[in-house]
Amino acid sequence: MLIPEAWDGNDDMDPVKKAFYEFHASIMEPWDGPASISFTDGKMIGATLDRNGLRPSRYCVTKDDRVIMASETGVLPVDPKNIREKGRLQPGKMFVVDMEQGRIISDDELKKKICSQKPYGDWLNQFKIRLEELDEPRVTFSHLTDESVHKYQKAHGYSTEDIETIIKPMALDGKEPIGSMGTDVPLAVLSDQPQHLSSYFKQLFAQVTNPPIDPIRERMVMSLATFVGNNGNLLEEDPMHCHTVALKQPILTSKELEKIRSIDTGIFQAKTLQTYFRADGKPDSLKKGLERLCRYAEDAVHDGFEVLILCDRAMDSDHASIPSLLATAAVHHHLIRKGLRGQVGIVVEAGDVWEVHHFACLLAFGATAINPYLALATIRNMKANGLLQTDLEWEKLRYNYIKAVCDGLLKVFSKMGISTLQSYQGAQIFEILGLNHEVVERYFTGATSRIEGIGLEEIAKEALVKHYFAFSKKDVPVDRLPVGGVYQWKRKGEFHLFNPTTIHLLQESTKKNDYSIFKKYSKFVNDQSEKAATLRSLFEFKRNRPSLNIDEVEPAESIYKRFATGAMSFGSISWEAHTTLAIAMNRLGGKSNTGEGGEDERRYEPMANGDSMRSAIKQVASARFGVTSLYLTEADELQIKMAQGAKPGEGGQLPGYKVDEWIGKTRHSTPGVGLISPPPHHDIYSIEDLAQLIFDLKNANRAARINVKLVSKAGVGTIAAGVAKAKADVILISGHDGGTGASPISSIKHAGLPWELGLAETHQTLVKNKLRSRVVVQADGQMKTGRDIAIAALLGAEEWGVATAALVVEGCIMMRKCHMNTCPVGVATQDPELRKRFTGDADHVVNFFKFMVQELREIMAELGFRTVNEMVGQVDCLQPRENIQHWKYSKVDLSPILYKEPASLYTGLYNQEKRDHGMDDVLDWKLLKTAKPALDNKERVYAEFPIKNTDRTAGTILSNEISKKYKAAGLPEDTLHFKFFGTAGQSFGAFNTKGVTLELEGDANDYFGKGLSGARLIVYPSKESTYTAEDNIIIGNVAFYGATDGESFIRGKAGERFAVRNSGVRAVVESVGDHGCEYMTGGRIVILGDTGRNFAAGMSGGIAYVYDVKGKFAGNCNTEMVDLDPVSQDDIAELQDMIQRHYAYTGSSVAKFVLDDFENQLKNFVKVFPKDYKKVLQDKAASVKQKA
Amino acid sequence: MASNSGLYHPSFEHDACGIGFVASIKGNKSHQNISDALTVLENMEHRGACGCENNTGDGAGIMIQTPHEFFFEECLKLGIHLPSFGRYGVGVIFFPKEIKLREECRDIFNRTAEKLGLEILTYRKVPVNPHDIGPTALSVEPEMEQVFVACPDHINNPDDFERRLFVLRNHATHLINSTVKKDAIGFYLASLSYKTVVYKGQLTSMQVRSYFPDLSNKRVVSAFGLVHSRFATNTFPSWKLAQPFRFIAHNGEINTLQGNLNWLKTSEHGFTSPFFTHEEMEMLLPIISGGQSDSACLDNMIELLTMTGRSFTTCNDDAYPRSMGW
User: Which residues of B participate in catalysis according to the annotation?
Assistant: First the structure.
């Protein structure tokens, strides 16, 4: 009930069980999130897993009737002869031992019994109200006229940009529009333009402690189903609990809304309440309006209504509509306080709802369903007036728009790791930025809001600006919508920090190497007294110690090393732009970053003139493109990207046409085949997983610093503390505003926080936990001047990153077309013609950093700091700017940011301690010692070792040593052969390279063969065991994640997400769990048994052969991107060879059976062939033919 | 828990962990089960974390079945003759170190029991061995005692008794937390049941065995041992956030906690159940009190559903929970 399986949309589920879940869904929302739970009441003991299987749970049943269940296998040594069964908990499943009955009860038996206890299905049939089956409405609204649509648009604050950039593409394409280059407009609370109330709400997202979900590729766990009505008494079961309106999704057309308004089942009715306040501009008019609304709502519940419809249509020249978000949240929290909220559904009928973020805010603060009547009317009228160049009918446009909203909502939930609308409803997954505590406590109770801001009066004022604009009493009203200018700079639109003037000055100054021009530029950017855009613009420096002469400040040369450029992949920006940054940073002694996409090996060699194109920081992102043993070995710093500022919690996609030969090679993928970056790292679902990845990377390169990149949000400080405990060396706090990558524009604007908040929180929390001196703290996000750097240092960062400004120096003019491959200045494009227009130069970039450091040193001298270290965290050298009069931002309270956490003399405020990564006693030291003849002279070596679950990341240091010496080529095949007995710890064989064979007699945990780079891994059960190997689990979840090369033979079952994002490994296994071969882009996988659900989701390359004797595979495969073909003549040799080798290495009886009857068994194999990949192969074949 | 200041807020805290259990399918009790469960815990050391000191853990613990014979003998030493298994409950209490506060808490607890018609048989000081425990953990180490509560004669069904213990635990905890001056340790009941006992604390996985000598006593037997090792995002010691809780050990994260708590808050005053009187229901509220981890909240919720009939084992033959859909 609390942690249900994914029932909605699962057609294979037993109807009795589905009815059980659906019935209980109308009583209670799931407690959503990754979970592995062990439970007991003293008589039964068991365990269960969340619907997405995001935590490991392995069990072992012994012949002497004991069960051992744990997060890992091998935690209790058991004689192999005594083992009856080895298994794992599957997503959404339960495992129970009834110690009174003395037996194990299976998930099936257990749930069958529970689900058939009451006639849930009958109850549903009898009492559930299905929207589709409702009577026609009693009355219908006539459509709004053009004139009134226009008037309403003005009153609700629509701009032409909103209509053109957001609503129109949603209706035409059914998708949320994409943008790029981050955001540099003022925060809502700093802007002079009247804001939509939801702009003060920033979406929260998952990072580190729980994973975001992929709502597209893992759609099966997501649900938008919701119920409008009374939830009833949770503690008793009553058939009437399900007497609610069932909705498949929460967006209602106007007709559907009218149906609900007209409902009368005898005991179920809806009440419409008007949400308006007097537009008289008096201080408490809005408050009175809200009080009246709450009073009416309370009465309506007492009067027995099951649905409240909050309608804002009743506006006129004297009455303005209450912002729907405020009205909804006010009613929601009022009813919660009165203990009445569970008795009604709240439907919002509102004009001020048009982009995904607006819908998300409403749902998170209490709405059950939403009718965006004005957005729909806008589309309808545009169509009617011929403003949409399309043949699509209005109904189809409406369908598209609603679909775009729904998909967008799933994206918003999933970035927080939430999979169902029901649990998102009322979950308040936002941080409020710029509303005062009276408003928050009263109407948004319990939401996080830390810097105060405007109150009801100002909210009313912003609403009235729009209202007066629509209902102007003046004779000549301006009859155009405002231009907007939020997503791209416009002459009369919103202010941008990077505007034609600042861009010109910055480029001019760095080209001419003229510091005086730079000072003009920085004055424009820094002095925001007229137009504030950033929180830091509200600060000024405060001198607490005598100023110094600038010569007394540490030299610029020692400061350059503290700079890094942002993580931008080769692929998103051009070769020229990428290498120019690298050369410049290498000249300065700073660090450039590969971004997510590997690095061309040629860049590891120094250039003839002494420059180097090698990026010091190698990024490890969720797709692990090109992350090989050599790539890791060639790094000074390894950066784990947990999130990125422009779209935290989301994945990405590089379409096939952008993956040319070069990019394909660098990313170790097939040219022409599209590449997907998953939202989560599939080896980081929690903090202990991150600790494991840090350990893996440290093994892969002991000399490199491990950097964990986080995005600023409420709570990032505590996450940073966890990351520090997980033994990261560097923590990067990224602002919400950066990002070259293509992102949905609602994510660019509404997710994440400015770095000032995240950095200050991180520094304060680390000091509080006495962890600050163990890590380096870095900050980035639209850093543009030396002043920005100085503020970052005072708030607690000793290193800094710069991305957008560096691109501007390279020639970027903020066209914001990075995602379209049409960058006119050759920066963010792969088009060979456009790339010729690139004018960037490493010298310009060098100049830019010199200027920044010069400005920083001037500030240091002024404030009396000799060194950066002295300056870090000295936040008392900042104070709020004096004389701020602005009607909005004078209300902001910056003191929480400027709070200085008290620290004793012994608590360091910057990185001073050396890390102990706990690697002194890893198994690899023994391997390395034994392998010496191989490393020195390529001599063959064979040795045997016992292994246990605490021996993690086996073979990785060894491979690092091989890569150092033999580069990508590694050692000749089979040079090193190690055999292990026992249970291997996590990450067995991670990043193991060519020439290594690891043979394991026993079993293994999660992340088997992570990032495999050419080695061979063999695993089979202990020869003493008596159980049937193919029926028992032998390796854990997420095997071969991001692997690029190598082969493996696995005698038994694997867990969830086998070969996820594999791009080169050839492996044979005897059964896999859910999401097998997800996001795979290359390699060959043979599965000699069953697969779980959602096989091949997002699989764009490589081939899988599945031995499907039961004929059930098709139902378990996600065929969105793959075809299921018979094995063709050309494949036979390959398939047979792999199975033969499997038999040879593991002695598998399954392999033997298949081989003995091969001709006949061939028909049982299904070839899973990605459509993209197939097309590339066909095109290639055709062109070869043509040439011939 | 550290006080709130600056941008930090305790509600941002997260944790994660390793969990596991060893159980005898046939329900055979042995000391081996406990010892093996502790070995499981020790082998998951890398899934937990250390605070700013290597010998201060983030929390670890074990839940076992009530070792009746052991408790019987221990109570005899205290001059108390325990009734048979099932006729008494045992609670594990974290008391404040300071004696005055402790006795205030004890006094309220005793009076609450009396009000509910439950007789306190005795308190037993839980033997602990604080050597090798880090100073941060020790700074808020509670005084751990076990309380033994007799089942009133008129209650024949052990599950009914268990529900009365639930009322006692919640009501006494609410009362004490709202009246007694709070110190850093506070008052907390790790478990109160006739069936199970929890041993846990601000320990590393390696320290559980040595900190609680009871767990190495051969007379302490159980059909299972359920263990948990925690990895928190802070270094602030809090003994009560260690797991297992009363019903579960949780490795995970509730993303929707704020919403879930709101929905509970708005409906709990309308709760009715045939298993509790109206007055008892009032005493149970709030079901989930503030300042707990998401895992603790989930445990509270599962407990509520179990205690109101959606239970693992009800008194009839129906051995299956009605809605183990969770």
Answer: 17
CB contact under 8 A, B5 and A210: no
- Preceding peptide of A606 cis, ω within 30°: no
For residues A1030 and A1052, give the distance between their C-alpha atoms in angstroms, rounded to a whole number.
Answer: 4
Neighbours of A292 (CB within 10 A): 15
Q: Are A606 and A732 within one domain? A: yes
Residue A757 to residue B266, Cβ atoms within 8 A: no
> Do residues A606 and A736 share a domain?
yes
The arrangement of strands across the sheet holding A245-247 comes to A129-130, A245-247, A226-228
User: Which chain A residue has the Cα nearest residue B3?
Assistant: A768
Residues of A within 8 A of B234 (CB-CB) are: 718, 721-722, 765, 769
User: What was the ipTM of the complex prediction?
Assistant: 0.93
What is the spatial distance between Cα A1092 and Cα A1053, in angstroms, rounded to a whole number?
11
**Cβ pairs A/B, distance under 8 A:** 376
Number of domains chain A contains: 4
Cross-chain Cβ contact B6/A54 below 8 Å: no
The answer to whether the bond into B10 is cis (omega within 30° of 0) is no
Query: Are A111 and B249 inside 8 Å of each other by CB?
Result: no
**Least CB-CB distance to B326: which of A3, A40, A899?**
A3
Q: Closest partner residue to B233 among A3, A206, A209, by Cβ?
A: A209
**Which among A97, A231, A721 has the least Cβ separation from residue B23?**
A97
Tens place of pLDDT per residue across chain B (326 aa): 334 578 888 777 777 788 999 999 999 999 999 999 999 999 998 887 766 677 888 899 999 999 999 999 999 999 999 999 999 999 999 999 999 999 999 999 999 999 999 999 999 999 999 998 999 899 999 999 999 999 999 999 999 999 999 999 999 999 999 888 777 778 999 999 999 999 999 999 999 999 999 999 999 999 999 999 988 877 777 899 899 999 999 888 888 888 888 888 888 888 899 999 999 999 999 999 877 888 888 889 888 888 887 744 332 222 222 223 33
User: Region A889-898: what's the mean pLDDT?
Assistant: 94
Q: By the 8 A CB rule, do B21 and B224 touch?
A: yes
Please indicate if any CB of chain B lies within 8 Å of the CB of A212: no
What does the domain layout of chain B look like in residue ranges?
Answer: 13-307
In a domain, A909, yes or no: no
Contacts of B273 in chain A (CB under 8 A): 235-236
| CATH fold of the domain at B13-307 | Glutamine Phosphoribosylpyrophosphate, subunit 1, domain 1 (3.60.20)
CA distance B133 to chain A (A): 18
**Token pair for A942:** 């064979």
Any domain includes A488: no
A998: containing domain: 924-1187
Q: Does A992 share its domain with A1079?
A: yes
Taking CA atoms, A725 is separated from A54, A681, A720, A721, B118, in Å, by 22, 19, 8, 6, 45
* Chain A positions in Cβ-Cβ contact with residue B28 (cut-off 8 Å): 65
> Å from A409 to nearest chain B CA?
15
Q: Which amino acid is at A925?
A: W
Domain assignment of residue A13, yes or no? no
- The verdict on A254 and A394 lying in the same domain is yes
pLDDT of A562-585, one tens digit each?
999 999 888 888 999 999 999 999
Q: Can you give the CATH number for the domain in which A798 is found? A: 3.20.20.70
In Å, what is the CA distance from A770 to each residue of A775, A912, B206? 11, 12, 23
Considering only the beta carbons, identify the residue of A33, A40, A426 that sits closest to B255. A33
In this complex, do B7 and A760 lie within 8 Å of one another by their Cβ atoms?
Answer: yes
